[in-house]
Specification:
The chain has a six-stranded parallel β-sheet, sandwiched between helices. Helices cover about 50% and strands about 10% of the residues. Strand 5 (about 185), helix 9 and strand 6 form a beta-alpha-beta unit. The protein has ten helices and six strands; from the N terminus they run E-H-H-H-H-H-E-H-E-H-E-H-E-H-E-H. It has helices at about 15-30, 35-40, 50-60, 65-85, 95-105, 120-125, 150-155, 170-180, 190, 205-210; strands at about 5, 110, 135, 165-170, 185, 200. Bound molecules: 6-O-phosphono-alpha-D-glucopyranose and magnesium ion. 6-O-phosphono-alpha-D-glucopyranose binds near residues 48 and 113.
C-alpha cells in the first residue's frame, strides 16, 4: 500500500540542469578543466563535492581538499546567481496539478534531494507548502545512490519504506530508492532509459496511476 510519495527535487519538481551546467562550465573554463553537457548528465543526483571529484577524475587531475572546497563554493555561488531566474511561474501546471491531487487524496508528500539549495529552490518556486517533510543535502552524510536521504524522509514521515514511492530523474536516485525497498517512478532522463518500476513522461501520470 502506497501512503507517501517522496520526490527528488531537481529534474522532477523543477529542472535546474541547465543552471548546474552553466555554473560548472563557467568554473571549468576559469580553472582550465574540461566540461561538457555529457559530463553534466553524469552529475545528476550526485553531491557537489562528489561532482567535482568525478570531473577531476575524468581528466586525471588531483587537487587538495582545500582547493576543492574553494571550487565547489565558487560553483555554488554561480549556480545561485542562476537560481535568481526561478519564480513561481517556473513550476509547470502539470506538476502543480499532480501535487494538489496527491495531497487531496491523502498522500503524504516529501522531498528527498541531494541538494543543499533545496529549501531555497522550493521557496523561489513557491511550493514549499505542498510537502510534509523536506530532507536535503544538509541533512545527510552520504549522497545518492546511498539510500540515506530517502530512509530519513520515510522516518520523518512516519511510514515504512515499503509504503513509499520515489519519483526520480537520476539513475543514482532510482538505485537509492530501490536499495531501501521503495517503489520507483522514473521521470525525465531515468524514464528515458526506463530504469524505474514505472516510467512516466510527467508527474500527472504518476498521480493518475495511484489516486
Ligand atoms: C541535485 C542535482 C545534482 C547536484 C546536487 C547537489 O541532486 O541533480 O546535479 O550536484 O543536487 O546540489 P547542490 O545544490 O547542493 O550543489
Ligand atoms: Mg534529480
Amino acid at each position: 500500500l502506497i501512503k507517501a510519495v517522496i520526490f527528488d527535487l531537481d529534474g522532477v519538481i523543477i529542472s535546474t540542469d541547465e543552471y548546474h551546467y552553466l555554473a560548472w562550465k563557467r568554473l571549468a573554463d576559469e580553472t582550465g578543466l574540461y566540461f561538457d553537457r555529457n559530463m553534466n548528465s553524469a552529475l545528476r543526483g550526485v553531491s557537489r563535492l562528489e561532482s567535482l571529484n568525478i570531473i577531476l577524475s575524468r581528466q586525471g587531475r588531483q587537487m587538495s581538499e582545500t582547493d576543492k572546497l574553494q571550487l565547489t563554493d565558487k560553483k555554488n555561488s554561480y549556480y545561485k546567481e542562476y537560481l535568481e531566474h526561478l519564480t513561481p511561474a517556473s513550476l509547470t501546471e502539470d506538476t502543480a496539478n499532480a501535487l494538489t491531487s496527491l495531497r487531496k487524496h491523502g498522500y503524504l508528500l516529501a522531498i528527498g534531494s541531494s541538494s543543499k539549495n533545496a529549501r531555497l529552490i522550493l521557496d523561489r518556486i513557491g511550493c514549499g507548502t505542498y510537502f510534509d517533510v523536506v530532507v536535503d543535502g544538509n541533512d545527510i552524510k552520504r549522497s545518492k545512490p546511498d539510500p540515506e536521504v530517502f530512509e530519513l524522509a520515510a522516518k520523518h514521515l512516519g511510514v515504512f519504506p515499503e509504503n513509499c514511492i520515489v519519483a526520480e530523474d537520476s539513475e543514482a536516485g532510482i538505485e537509492a530508492a530501490a536499495t531501501c525497498g521503495m517503489r520507483t517512478a522514473a521521470v525525465g532522463y531515468a524514464a528515458k532509459i526506463r530504469c524505474g518500476d514505472w516510467n512516466f513522461d510527467k508527474l500527472s501520470e504518476l498521480a493518475k496511476k495511484i489516486v
